[in-house]
Amino acid sequence: QVQLVESGGGLVQPGGSLRLSCSASGSIYSINVMGWYRQAPGKQRELVAAITSGGSTTYADYVKCRFTISRGNAKNTVYLQMNSLQPEDTAVYSCNLGQGGWSLPGRYWGRGTQVTVSS
Asked: Is the C-alpha dihedral spanning 83, 86, 89, 90 positive or negative?
């Protein structure tokens, strides 16, 4: 079984920063893609950023130059550094893992972590 556990959400003021972490455990393939999705109240879930096991990244246009996705040394950990946060970034952020290729979203999801940007 594969399990994804997120951490790092919380309340932050506009212009502030947060770093989300996601740790994957279980049977993890060497070829995989890990990503962050978010869902705001009343809106559809959307891709924020993703990174392959080879280090290639992709970002949604609205987070480019503000957010950075990276892998930890253990490769089964992914981080999302979020800078210059704005109220419209408020959402539940969920970690996602796809195995054996680069298709998104993958099969596995974390439970999500709440990010609230408010003064």
From this structure: positive
Q: What is the mean pLDDT of residues 80-93?
A: 98
What residues are paired with 107 via a beta bridge? Answer: none
Task: Specify whether the CB–CB gap between 82 and 67 falls below 8 A.
Answer: yes
Cβ contact 85:14 at 8 Å:
yes
pLDDT tens by residue, 41-69: 999 999 999 999 999 999 999 998 999 99
Question: b/e per residue, 76-110, with b = 16+ CB within 10 A?
Answer: bbbbbebeebeeebbbbbbbbbbbeeeeebbebbb
